[in-house]
Amino acid sequence: MPSWNIAQVAEEIARRRLSQSPLIERMMDVRDRYNADIIVPVPGVDDDIPLSSLAPLLIADAVDNTALYAAQARPTISVPALDAGSTRSTDYASRRRKALGKVWDKSWMDLVLGRMYRHLAGYATSALVVELDHNTRLPRICVRDPLSAYPEPKAPEDLTPPENCGFVFGRSLDWLHKNFPATRERFQRGAGFSVSQSNEGELWDCVEWVDDDQVLLGVLGPRDAYRSWTREPREWAFELSATPNVIGRCPAVVPRRVTLDRIVSQLAHLIGHADMIAKLTYLDIRATEKSIYPDRYIMGKVGQNPRLVGHDWKGGETGEVNVIQDADAIGELRGTPDPNNKMTVDRLERNLRISSGLVPQTGGETYGALRTGRGIDALMGAALDPKTAELHRVGERYLSEVNELVLLGFAKRWPGSTYAVGFPTDTATVEFVPSKHVELLGHADGAGRPQLSLDNRVTYPIPGMDDANATVVIGQMLAAGLVPQRDARRMHPHVGDPDGAERQLLVEQLEGIAVAMLGERAQKGGITPADISRMIELAYDGLPLHKALAKVDEEASQRQAQVAPAPEPGMAMPPEMMPGLANPGEGAEMQAPPQIQPPNDDMMNLRAIVGALQEA
Length: 616
Fold this sequence. Notes:
Layout lengths: L5 H14 L1 H14 L23 H14 L4 E3 L8 H20 L2 H15 L3 E7 L4 E7 L4 E3 L12 E9 H7 L2 H8 L13 E9 L2 E9 H5 L5 H4 L1 E7 L7 E2 L17 H22 L2 E6 L6 E3 L13 E3 L1 E7 L5 H18 L16 H41 L5 E3 L8 E3 L1 H4 L2 E5 L5 E3 L4 E3 L7 H13 L5 H7 L6 H27 L4 H12 L4 H17 L39 H15 L1
Antiparallel strand pairs: 1-18, 2-3, 2-9, 4-5, 5-6, 6-7, 7-8, 10-13, 11-12, 14-15, 16-17
Helix pairs in contact: 3-5, 3-12, 10-11, 17-18
């Protein structure tokens, strides 16, 4: 379809805002309870005590416990090779995977995932955007607020990423003037509305519209006026900037939980429980306060009006006495808080915990009969594992789409650039050139455009489990012979480079064999103490074991091939020919200098023949 203009965007955002207002209101209710920004009114009493400090923050705990449990497990990224039997294709796939690892690290994905899972746990939806950072020349993965995200409306059964999405944010006129100087002149000329100097700090709704063709920034209008529908949306709107979308796909991905028929958070149905708990807790505290400080009444004498001597009533805690004239008696209205109120609060809290999966163990408590660690883990697993597993599966699918956008950003925006890429846990980086290592497929899309090798998969080793439990399960699968060691390394989230880890393990095994062999030969007298000392010196200098062995072997060969100098006066033999601490013949000595040997029988016979010839 043709590119959207700002008037069309303004009208579309207004329609989506109107249709999504019930969903956004529920999301805002959850947000307000999460942030403890809500005050539950109690008729008939003064609200001098904030309710948020009296009742437990169950909504916040329900969001955080599920999100923290889901975010503490690390996902793994796998990129298949186009030709598994080709070394070149396998190497290119490894480089694409390392490029994704670099982008994840620079995007702070460990924190991004924490917020994304909080959105999914609290709102049942989230919003991720791949931005092209021109300063670092890298794609960057960002998380946006779902409350201000307006993606393309889709049917509940359609879980694919949107083709367009609008993000609304508030900015002051001062910000608009500084970042877009042309807006100052537009406001001064008048654009269908008047702007005075007094409302320079007023928030204006701006929009960032992204689709497969462009990234458009525009102003929707003053926040209060635009949202109160005092004018048509298109009358307020004007464009700030519009840039082509070089990726060619909408850079927004909007994950959402799988529900029955529409996006809805289960916590939204528990808002009434949380508010009622806060209200009853407040009333119980007020009733307890009344029982401690009861209301007093004074009965006057017949025909007399009691009068307090002095101006202020002195409380009992001061120890002073109140003097009252014409009083017959003073009484107190004492009351005891209704115990049924506490039972009602406990029942409401229990219902909320059951519906939200908040087991007491997540708050450091346990049931009276549950004392073993295995039982506590099983109960927490029954409450959290299914919810966490669903979040992990949602994350797997949508994060794979995000990775495709990242590879497209590399290939379309900076195809000829050279990057040093790798995971933070890698021992070394490799070279990545998008135009070379993001390979072309053998076919084109419907528009005749060549397709790129974007296939990847983000997976959790065991969805629903944290890293510690996943390590145990992977170890058991390996011990039972269900998976090979290579697959076990690929499954574990803390093994950033499975191929590199395999090579390193092989190196360590060979080094262990070499050290054991050296120790055995040294004990049996095959290596001199001087050579062992030299190996220790090279190891202290940071030389790897294989290089240290090669260097010591080379030095020993040169020593053994040299001829020892003549002994100094007073020496029977030169020091270079002595074994020192080594055993004789172990290779510590140089070669002895050559000596003139006495003539043998052949030489004597030759001498006789030469002499006979001379006489003749």
